[in-house]
Amino acid sequence: MKDRPPIDRDSFEPPYAQLARTIRERIAGGAYRPGDRLPSEAELCAAFSVSPMTVRRAIGELVRADVVVTEHGRGTFVKPPQLAAASFDLGDLMRYLASPDVEARILEARIVSAGPRVAEKLAREEGERVISIKRLLLRGDEPVFYHSEYLVFDPARPLVEAELATTALQDLFSGAHGSDLKFGRLTLHASAFTETEASQLGEQPGTLAWVLEHLFFDFDDRPESWGRFVGRADRLSFTTTVGIPGPQEGV
Amino acid sequence: MKDRPPIDRDSFEPPYAQLARTIRERIAGGAYRPGDRLPSEAELCAAFSVSPMTVRRAIGELVRADVVVTEHGRGTFVKPPQLAAASFDLGDLMRYLASPDVEARILEARIVSAGPRVAEKLAREEGERVISIKRLLLRGDEPVFYHSEYLVFDPARPLVEAELATTALQDLFSGAHGSDLKFGRLTLHASAFTETEASQLGEQPGTLAWVLEHLFFDFDDRPESWGRFVGRADRLSFTTTVGIPGPQEGV
DNA sequence: CGGACAAACTTCCCTAGACCAGTAGGGTAG
DNA sequence: CTACCCTACTGGTCTAGGGAAGTTTGTCCG
User: Is residue B93 predicted with pLDDT exceeding 60?
Assistant: First the structure.
């Protein structure tokens, strides 16, 4: 029962991370099973010759990763994998769309009069002027996403041409239109292509589609932009892992 | 410029949380804009009369929430809302399905011979015996999800009757079939109802559907169960928020 | 036998420093 | 003018404790 991996003080991996990894590995190896109590903080301090703060931080990492749960006054317990803890990350999709071989082609960019739906989303009056931008996202020569977006029209801040460039994707994902935005709300749902979308993407109307809707607000909590990405659903799925992944996981 | 909210030592909210909240509010209020540098740790220590560790913890929370980003040697900076940081949580859906007014009705539970697809998913030979369970999840009297699941058949561990009870949903989401599972992989994709699914749910075949597929592994990294939830897509969407939500957010 | 209480645990949060490492700016030697 | 280095400032990590608060257990007393 000798601790094979105590703590390597010369490693680049800081002690708290080594400790967190070690505990994780022991759980993955079955040394601690779901429901079991981990050694107390004091015991871990002694066993690994680190200070309480270091132990607390290591445990904190595991708590955040939903691997263990702490109960005040009772102890720290190993959690079974929880379906409810699952969350699907948009990061991979966004990084893919922001990659160099994906380009955005502007189909249309003009000032239009807000229809009822746009007016409601942007909290403006119907008929007010808004900027309409329609983009096609292509990977190589193949269209993968259709993007339609409406921005509130502010005469004081004329439409920046740079935002319309094909390189705007970068900003679109990292800092969306300058940095005057406070927060955004995203909604993912499944739908079917409309006529317009289908023709632009070269698909049949009614084909299964993902719709990712985004609504961004400025620092006065007023809607600033509203738009949606539409793409074929059968080419994209979201995958995630709960619990402690096996050895070859990580993509 | 007097700090109105220093730190209330008598509050139930611990200082690190008060500090994190205060900084968050200042960002939300526009005092610090995206790209701005926050006061340094030392300055925050002095301004709020707390120790460095407390400041670090507060900042750590904000980093984790993707509100700020720290750069070693340079400072801590406010992040604009990032699309790539978005993740869709299954928690709400799971809590909804686990609520008391949702019940699971067993349609079928028997031992079958593994077909090619099941055999591949469970890493077994085709023709081996597996347990097949089909459930209907009802809210009130209305079916909302169809659940099909295959478990490896282990004669040593006979099928627990409790797992088949209509109350099994609880376990299904929190600890899935005892606690012998190490991790699970979940995949979400959009699809259309098959004949079987449609008839069970009282829908038309071809209707848009969500499919949530789950594959659980035991502590030897062997697949233990594989199954999928299928439900109407037009009644369910996933919503999330990036950046700092406005005042009335939080559902 | 039963209930109150105290001790011994546990986690939680904090202090007040220390040293290391990365960055930026200014001054100096070439 | 350029290249270099030195210094001040930044976050990153850790130490070695402390007191507060929740839980469990066992003991003592009625």
Answer: yes
Task: Give all domains of chain B, ordered by start, each with its CATH number.
Answer: 15-80 (1.10.10.10), 91-235 (3.40.1410.10)
Q: Which two tokens stand for residue B74?
A: 């340079």
Residue numbers in B 66-95, CB below 7 Å of strand D: 70-76
- pLDDT of residue A234 exceeding 60, the answer is yes
CA of A50 to C1' of D15 (A): 8
Q: Are A163 and A184 in contact (CB under 8 A)?
A: no
Q: Which of B162, B108, B165 shows the shortest CA–CA distance to B135?
A: B108
Q: What is the pLDDT of residue B246?
A: 67
A166 pLDDT above the threshold of 50: no
> What does the pLDDT read at residue A157?
67
Per the structure, the residue whose CA is closest to nucleotide C12 at C1' is A72
For residues B211 and A112, what is the distance between their CA atoms, to the nearest angstrom?
38
Distance CA(B113)–CA(B142), nearest Å, equals 31
Query: What pLDDT is recorded for position B180?
Result: 79
Residue nearest to nucleotide C23 (CA to C1'): B73
Task: Answer whether 0.85 is exceeded by the pTM.
Answer: yes
Chain B residues inside the 8 Å CB shell of A84? 90-91, 94-95, 98, 173-174
